[in-house]
Design a protein that fits this description.
The structure is a homodimer.
Chain A (H helix, E strand, L loop, with lengths): L7 H23 L2 H8 L3 H8 L2 H26 L3 H13 L2 H11 L4 H22 L3 H19 L12 H8 L10
Chain A binds a DNA duplex through helix 3.
Amino acid sequence: MTRTRLTAEERQAQLIAAAVTAFSQSGYAGTTTDQVARLAGVSQPYVIRLFRTKQELFLAAVQHAGDRIEAKWREAAERDPSLGGLGDAYGELLAQPELVTMLLHGFAAAGDPAIGDPVRACFGRLYEVVRELTGATATEARDFFAVGMLLTCLGAMRVLGPDAVPPQPWSADLLGTFEGLDKKMS
Amino acid sequence: MTRTRLTAEERQAQLIAAAVTAFSQSGYAGTTTDQVARLAGVSQPYVIRLFRTKQELFLAAVQHAGDRIEAKWREAAERDPSLGGLGDAYGELLAQPELVTMLLHGFAAAGDPAIGDPVRACFGRLYEVVRELTGATATEARDFFAVGMLLTCLGAMRVLGPDAVPPQPWSADLLGTFEGLDKKMS
DNA sequence: CACGTTAGTTATCGACTGATAACCTGTCAA
DNA sequence: TTGACAGGTTATCAGTCGATAACTAACGTG
């Protein structure tokens, strides 16, 4: 078994992907740099070497999640530049909720100013991108993000998505309101 | 300085209040049982003695937040049993976002099944209470909670509430859509 | 006033975790 | 060949944190 040697850039990209997976499950404080390292198949000190601190690794993961969501929306807008089109794209993201849950953990950790500032910038950019792509009014965009946040929370709660728990009366009731909106729900 | 001696019940109630304050700032993994203990003016081992584990303390705090929010809604419904009435009540809660942020951290920590189950039960109960109190349809209740989740996330992000950061163009734009809905925003 | 019960503390431990330092090794150009 | 740089590891530490054990002190009651 020869250890595959990658460039620092490639390794960083791989580690950021691993960080998104790990942090989206247990959040900032609940995730170990060693867990991220093992996911990528490298040693824990090397993770620190490449990102300096756990915090910078976390911020890189938040940034990556924001970038991927923005890219998804831009791609969707090329076919259907309406809120409905972006909503469908968001529904597809929720089938693999890593990215959106990562963002939620960014919100949750925003109490620390060093994390809050980049997280707000990331969310603000997403808001502006949606308005720019769809031409929606502020109120329309607000309702769009409102539903998005609800779905994101439901995903984190395991009411929704691949790791969803058996439905309860209330959750079936609530999810039923999204009929015709979910395309690729597992 | 004579240490005030309380009954276990009173001390538990006091500790739960302290736990809500502490956990709502740093989340489950990011908060120390010692921080909760200091907030209540007791020793850390005594917190563990009263709640057995950190996890049970956290769950008690989540439960308490859910109960308080439910009580607030029931009280509001006596005056105005409409979604608008409950929405105003929620707006008042956001002025002191401890309770709602506590709940958000419950969602974030729901990846652990031992936490997820009670958290889902808590949220499900709130959903049913809203529908029962207002007679709203599932879709109306969904939109109500959607906006609530957005506001909760914005509070956690310090876009909203007492610890809010200076507004950005996008946040002013977004918050502007709530004009006429915010009564007691600080 | 003795005495059991309840409230609370101090001391301490074992496990964990982020970070540092020192070292190793494959690759490539001269 | 050699040597230097970039990728990566092992060893290790200092601090932290949840939890346990043993002890102390106040209260109420017969």
